């Protein structure tokens, strides 16, 4: 999780990020929240990674396009435009600033990739035709150097000195077709994940943002996110800015990815714990997911216990197994619990999720939870088992709202990504 966070912070911030897939439609999921693209005569189609609704397909006609209104959020000086394309014909706009004008334009022209500042400036074009399959393509313009570059799969494939000029990037953006019957070059093919940056990205950055919608903005927003390492100590990095955990009798220790201060060590006594004050920011009430990396050295004790000396929602190690138990808010009744098989004494990425909407009989039942209490990690105030609990913990992350799809963890180059989907309730 530390790696994921660093990666996130180091990635350049997009001026616009349109995934163009079934999940997000034509919406911008970037921080600028630009208007959604207006789709016309386009439909969802398979994307570059096999998802059946992983792109939009343009039919190659005047009336098949996406128009993105530009209220200033797409207006840049230096610029980088990136997208996945799979073209089926030889000519048409990927991105054209101007409905029927020549602002900055990024096209397929005579089967080649093409980038140009205006209708009359020097342009960059690939020296070869682009094969008709998926490519991760891009163009960048560096105002300081005046150079326009073209990129395919993270490699620079063409450049041209165009001069330092302010761009006509104030126009609305057209993808697929300009609003022109005189210029009948309309793109036939598919486009996935349009990214626009307000600067000329380096090659390293272009490679780094290649999978950006898969590993950053598509992630669910955590209610609380405590890295529990040397860099962030017990502070919450989430937008909720919950109070920092109060560490007591714990110390920094090596983490799951080899960092010497990548976790907190709990000593397995009643005075070794982290207490997180809950001012309401952790009170998920209904559905909840709690995730952490855990390397336990004994068999019993709390990972997360809502309530410093009471039984709110709790997520423990019990008899060497993972244990989670919801706790009905309305009264003292505890709900049915879930147990895992026994846990190996190494780093494990563990979690529990409670689905409030899941009303199935044999399950725990649907009840508002006791998540209003302060949170205890490592030791509950008066429970024998706290005395023998010893563990290293890092990176606690609580996600709220109701999960729609299953939670799944995906490892890629040692960085893990956790995917959820939420009902926006
Ligand atoms: C791009 O950056 C410039 C200078 O930092 C700023 O004035 C402009 O508002 C930015 N545009 C967008 C679309 O973020
Ligand atoms: C590239 O595409 C153009 C336009 O369709 C075509 O005329 C040309 O023959 C193609 N070149 C190659 C090498 O396939
Ligand atoms: C770009 O990468 C894709 C696979 O992601 C590959 O199919 C395509 O041929 C590559 N394009 C070029 C020009 O190498
Ligand atoms: C943009 O051009 C300036 C001036 O030539 C140069 O210092 C800078 O490194 C360039 N930026 C990128 C990302 O290439
Ligand atoms: C992006 O994802 C694809 C498909 O999962 C993978 O092949 C590729 O290596 C990834 N690229 C980066 C830079 O992580
Ligand atoms: C939660 O329960 C609802 C109702 O049974 C179900 O539709 C939904 O898929 C469940 N969510 C998850 C993440 O399992």
UniProtKB/TrEMBL annotation:
Keywords attached to this entry: Signal
The UniProt record lists the keyword Signal: yes
Top-level taxonomic group: Eukaryota
Signal keyword on record: yes
InterPro entries in UniProt: ConA-like_dom_sf
Pfam families hit by this protein: Laminin_G_3
Signal peptide: 1-15
Protein name: LamG-like jellyroll fold domain-containing protein
Organism lineage: Eukaryota, Metazoa, Cnidaria, Anthozoa, Hexacorallia
